[in-house]
């Protein structure tokens, strides 16, 4: 589903244990979306040399980019618009669950992430 689209790391032969949601869902999923979006923007501004606190954000670069893409996608007025905005203090688990629930209830696809 939705989390698989975010946490599967294409191009990797095997997902390193620290980035595997099935093994570390609590740690990865407990990361605040605001931290991920902040670090994602940091990487966009300075692709080489940007460093971030892995204690605050244990996600892999690919996972961060997938989440930032998800946020941009669901904020499209044709998808969820303002309902797709990240809430204050919302973590990955809560955000992805909320987006999947909205998609199911509204009967919408999230291109690249979720198909009804």
The helix/strand order is: HHHHH
Note the total helix count.
5
**Largest sheet composition:** none
Cα-to-Cα separation, first versus last residue? 10 Å
Mean pLDDT: 90
Structural class category: mainly alpha
What's the count of strands?
Answer: 0
Query: Using only CA atoms, what is the Rg?
Result: 14 Å
Envelope shape: globular
Unreliable spans: none
Query: What percentage of amino acids are in beta strands?
Result: under 5%
Helix % is 40-55%
Any key phrases for this structure?
116 residues, mainly alpha, globular, 5 helices
Q: Can you give a write-up of this model?
A:
By secondary structure, the protein is mainly α. Helices cover 49% and strands 0% of the residues. It has five helices and no strands. It has helices at 2-7, 21-29, 33-45, 61-74, 92-106. Helix 3 (33-45) crosses helix 4. The longest helix has 15 residues, at 92-106. It is globular. The termini are close together.
């Amino acid at each position: 589903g939705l989390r698989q689209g975010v946490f599967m790391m294409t191009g990797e032969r095997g997902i390193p244990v620290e980035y595997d949601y099935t093994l570390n869902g609590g740690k990865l999923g407990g990361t605040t979306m605001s931290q991920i979006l902040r670090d994602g923007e940091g990487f966009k501004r300075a692709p080489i040399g940007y460093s971030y606190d892995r204690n605050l954000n244990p996600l892999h670069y690919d996972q961060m980019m997938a989440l930032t893409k998800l946020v941009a996608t669901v904020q499209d007025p044709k998808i969820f618009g303002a309902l797709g905005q990240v809430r204050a203090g919302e973590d990955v688990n809560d955000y992805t669950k909320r987006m999947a629930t909205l998609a199911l209830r509204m009967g919408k696809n999230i291109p690249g992430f979720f198909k009804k």
